[in-house]
Design brief:
- The chain is α/β, with parallel strands linked by helices.
- The protein folds into 2 domains: 179 residues, FAD/NAD(P)-binding domain (3-Layer(bba) Sandwich); 118 residues, FAD/NAD(P)-binding domain.
- It contains 6 helices and 17 strands.
- The strands form 4 sheets. Strands 1, 2, 3, 4, 5, 6 and 17 form a 7-stranded mixed sheet that branches. Strands 8-15-9-10-11 form a 5-stranded parallel sheet, covered by helices on one side.
- Helix 5 links the parallel strand 10 and strand 11.
- Helix 1 packs across helix 6.
- It is elongated, with a radius of gyration of 21 Å.
- Flavin-adenine dinucleotide binds next to helix 1, strand 2 and helix 6.
- It comes from Yanshouia hominis.
C-alpha cells in the first residue's frame, strides 16, 4: 500500500464511488476518490431522499453525501478534488490525468454517473424542482394528488407514467410519435391506469409563474399549438452517461453506457464500472451503492491475480 500507486482509483464521488471506496479500504486496499465538484453527485442535488433504506423520515441528499464521504474517509479513503481529464485505462499501472497532476492506480473504478437529457427549453434549469423533474421514483411523491405530464415514449417514460398514476390525480404522456417506442405490452397498462396519451406532440414552451403551471404543445404534423395545464412535467427522454474518459477504450452499449454485468467488470481488465454509467435496469442511489460494494470484491480479486496472491 503506497501513496504513489493506489490499489484503486475511483473516479467520481457519488454514492457508487464512495461505497466502492468504503468497501475497498475496509478490505485493506488503498483508495483515492477523484471528484471534480463535491461529494454526492446527483444525490447531492436531491433535496430529500426518502427511498434509501434507513432514511427514516427522509434525509437531505447533501447530508447523505457527506456521510458517505466521511464513512469512507474514516477507514482511510482519500479524496482528491480535481477533474479527471484523461484516463489511460489499459496501462499498467493505470494513469489518470487530472487538473492537479497525474495519479496512478493498479485498478480503476469508473463512477462518473449519468445525467438526464434535457428538453432544452427556456426556463427548464430554473424550474427544476419547481415543477420540472427527471425521475419519478425520486420526485413523484411531491406530486401526490396533482396533475402531471410525462414527456417521452420509451420504457422509462412509460414506467414513470405508470408509477405516477398510482399517486397523481391525472397523468398525461406526451409522445412525439404515433406509436410508443416502449414495449407494446405497456399500452394496455397505460389505458388501464387512466393515463392519457397525447400522440404526435412535443413540448415547445414551459408555462410558469415561478413554478410550472403548464406546457405549450405543438402537434408535430401541423404545428398547431395548444396549452396543457399541469403541476409537474417529468422529462423522460433519455439519460447521458458520463463516459467520455473511457471513450474508445471500454465497451459501451448503443446508448453509451459502459458494458458491465453484476460483477461491475468492464471490457478492460482491472477497470470496473459502478452506478448510473453502467448498463443496468434501475439507476438509483441504492443500486449505485450496491454496485460500489460489489466492485470492491472484484477489485480485490483482480489485484490478487495481478500480484499472484500478494496484493
Ligand atoms: C434531481 C435528482 C433527484 C434524485 N433523487 C433520487 C432519490 O430520491 N432516490 C434515489 O435513489 N435516486 C435519486 N436520484 C438518482 C441518484 O441520484 C443517482 O442514481 C445516483 O446519484 C447515481 O450515483 P453514481 O455514483 O452512479 O453517480 P453520480 O451521483 O452521478 O456521481 C457521479 C460523480 O462523478 C463526478 N464526476 C464526473 N465526471 C468526473 C470527472 N471527469 N472527474 C472527477 N469527477 C467526476 C461528478 O461530479 C459526480 O459527483 C436522483 C437524481 C437526480 C438528478
Amino acid at each position: 500500500m503506497t501513496d504513489s500507486i493506489y490499489d484503486v482509483i475511483i473516479i467520481g464521488g457519488g454514492p457508487g464511488g464512495y461505497t466502492a471506496a468504503l468497501y475497498c479500504v475496509r478490505s485493506g486496499l488503498s483508495a483515492l476518490v477523484i471528484e471534480k465538484l463535491s461529494a454526492g453527485g446527483q444525490m447531492a442535488e436531491t433535496e430529500q431522499v426518502d427511498n434509501y433504506p434507513g432514511a427514516g423520515e427522509g434525509i437531505g441528499g447533501f447530508e447523505l453525501a457527506e456521510r458517505m464521504r466521511e464513512g469512507a474517509e474514516r477507514f482511510g479513503a482519500r479524496t482528491l478534488y480535481a477533474q479527471a481529464q484523461k484516463a489511460d485505462l489499459r496501462a499498467n499501472p493505470k494513469r489518470i490525468t487530472t487538473d492537479q497532476g497525474e495519479r496512478l492506480g493498479r485498478s480503476v473504478v469508473l463512477a462518473m454517473g449519468a445525467y438526464p437529457r434535457m428538453l432544452g427549453l427556456a426556463g427548464e434549469q430554473e424550474l427544476r424542482g419547481k415543477g420540472i423533474a427527471y425521475c419519478a421514483a425520486c420526485d413523484g411523491m411531491a406530486y401526490r394528488g396533482k396533475t402531471v405530464a410525462v414527456a417521452g415514449g420509451g420504457n422509462s417514460a412509460v414506467a414513470d407514467a405508470l408509477m405516477l398514476a398510482k399517486l397523481c390525480a391525472k397523468v398525461y404522456l406526451i409522445h412525439r410519435r404515433d406509436t410508443l417506442t416502449a414495449s407494446k405490452v405497456y399500452l394496455k397498462a397505460l389505458r388501464e391506469n387512466g393515463i392519457e396519451i397525447l400522440w404526435n406532440s412535443r413540448v415547445t414552451r414551459l408555462l410558469h409563474d415561478g413554478r410550472l403551471t403548464g406546457v405549450e404543445l405543438a402537434e408535430v404534423n401541423t404545428d398547431r399549438r395548444s396549452k396543457l395545464a399541469c403541476d409537474g412535467l417529468f422529462v423522460a427522454i433519455g439519460r447521458i452517461p458520463d463516459t467520455g474518459l473511457a471513450a474508445g477504450q471500454a465497451a459501451t452499449d448503443p446508448s453509451g453506457y459502459l458494458v458491465a454485468d453484476e460483477t461491475t467488470r468492464t471490457s478492460i481488465p482491472g477497470v470496473f464500472a459502478v452506478g448510473d454509467l453502467r448498463t443496468k435496469p434501475m439507476r438509483q442511489i441504492v443500486t449505485a451503492a450496491a454496485d460500489g460494494a460489489v466492485a470492491s470484491r472484484f477489485v480485490e480479486e483482480y489485484l490478487v491475480e495481478l500480484f499472484n496472491g500478494q496484493p
